[in-house]
Amino acid sequence: MEKRALTITLQPDWQTALRAAAGTAFQRRRYMGETLNFESPAAFFGQLTEKRWMLVRTLQEAGELSVRELARRVQRDVKRVHEDAQVLVTLGLFEKSATGGLVCPYTDIHVDMHLQRAA
Questions:
Q1: What single-letter DSSP state applies at residue 8?
Q2: How far apart are CA 5 and CA 34, in angstroms?
Q3: What's the rounded Cα separation, in Å, for the pair 73 and 55?
Q4: Domains along the sequence of the chain with CATH
Q5: Distance (Å, whole) CA 41 – CA 52
Q6: pLDDT tens digits, residue range 80-90?
Q7: Where are the beta strands (DSSP E) in 3-98?
């Protein structure tokens, strides 16, 4: 399995960030990982809650799991885990396998967050 990396960024100007990442990847001509950007800390924390991070960590360690097994491992209700897993699939942190299970395809997830005092 190919090792994949994800960098999560918080930048209001996502178009400039996307252009910069594409330019760097084009210059280096190799896989530079993938990027998921949020426009604000509120958007980031609204989507990636503590319980969803627990799902990411569990699936990252376990490999492919069904929603039911994932819920059992994190000791949560299957319906709520299914709802959270759907959000994580939409964000791209989870993928559905050919057999219907869930996988976290990233071996490395890095959150790049800078907080600066307003000028």
A1: E
A2: 6
A3: 9
A4: 4-112 (1.10.10.10)
A5: 16
A6: 999 999 999 99
A7: 4-10, 34-38, 95-96
